[in-house]
Write a structure and sequence with these properties.
It is found in: Cell inner membrane. Belongs to the CcoP / FixP family. The strands form five sheets. This protein has a two-stranded antiparallel ribbon with strand order 1-2. The protein has 325 residues and is mainly alpha-helical.
């Protein structure tokens, strides 16, 4: 497929465009010429000589001059447009215009227009922002425009998309960490570990041990056998499944699940791994907007303003939830 994006395609598109314009002029020139037809009587025949249905004849008239002028002007306009604007393959045009550039300018204009609104909150601390109704109202609008598509309008998420209202955080719930997550995004990756754990039965035993860490229903014998298998997981998830917010490794001992709960879901995760992406918003929002949005997200959790959340996996709670780790 790499050949499809080669420079040759730009040349091909430019050539087709130029040849098309030239072909229009050639066609116009050919159609504008009046062919003189001599009839059987030796006199000039005002028709083309074509006869349909016995007596229908096509008159041999040239194209109207006004029509020809408009056609030529259209071709000239097209040529000038292709010189000034992009249209000939990868050529950007003499004006340097692009739709992406226009979009960037519109974003900058919009940011300049709303900057004074958010600048009023720059001097406030995270605790003050969480408690400020005006800041929360602005944060809610930002959340609905940029975050609700994944996390839901109420912030409760869904399977594979973290719940932001349960006070349970994967990368840490401090204001600075939330700002970092929004601005730079996150790359969460669980590598496939099935081969390192062993065979099918060993992975099943590990799954039951993981279930036992949170007090979920499990097979006690299988869990005991899977304890030693957990050593391969402890480097990220901790010896007791307490997780590691510096690595983004979720807790396994809290009954909070993001990608599926139960033996089958854990086995699938161990065998297949997982790669989740939280997009970065630093280029879409100003630092002031990100602070206000982060304060709103803090306020979604069930805790007092300024109280730090413990680091673990954002998701719905309970072993019966459809949202799982």
């Amino acid at each position: 497929m790499s050949d499809f994006f080669s420079q040759g395609w730009h040349v091909y598109i430019a050539a087709v465009t130029v040849v098309g314009l030239i072909a229009c002029l050639v066609l116009l020139f050919a159609a504008s010429r009046r062919t003189i037809v001599i009839g059987a009587d030796g006199k000039e025949d005002p028709t083309t000589g074509h006869v349909w249905d016995g007596d229908l004849r096509e008159l041999n008239n040239p194209l109207p001059r006004w029509w020809m002028i408009l056609f030529v002007l259209t071709v000239i306009f097209s040529a000038v447009y292709l010189v000034l604007f992009p249209g000939l393959g990868s050529r950007v045009g003499t004006l340097g215009w692009s739709s992406a550039g226009e979009y960037t300018k519109e974003q900058q204009t919009e940011q300049q227009a709303v900057a004074p609104i958010y600048a009023a909150f720059d001097a406030k601390s995270p605790e003050q922002l969480v408690a400020d109704p005006a800041a929360r109202a602005l944060g809610e609008r930002l959340f609905l425009s940029n975050c609700a598509q994944c996390h839901g309008s109420d912030g409760r998420g869904s399977k594979g998309f973290p719940n932001l209202t349960d006070g349970d955080w994967l990368w840490g719930g401090e204001h600075a960490r939330i700002v970092e997550t929004i601005a730079a995004g996150r790359q969460g990756m669980m590598p496939p570990m099935g081969a390192a754990i062993g065979g099918t039965e060993e992975v099943r035993q590990l799954a039951h041990y993981v279930l036992s860490l949170s007090g979920s229903a499990h097979n006690n014998i299988a869990a005991q056998l899977g304890r030693e298998r957990f050593a391969s997981c402890a480097g990220c998830h901790g010896a007791k499944g307490e997780g590691n917010p510096m690595l983004g490794a979720p807790r396994l001992n809290d009954k909070v699940w993001l990608h599926g709960w139960g033996e089958a879901a854990i086995i699938r995760m161990v065998n297949e791994g997982k790669h989740n992406v939280m997009p970065a918003f630093a280029e879409r929002m100003s630092p002031s907007q990100i602070r206000v949005l982060a304060a709103y997200v803090e306020g979604l959790g069930s805790r007092k303003p300024g109280e730090l959340k413990t680091a673990s996996t954002p998701a719905a709670t309970g072993p019966t939830a459809t949202v799982a780790r």
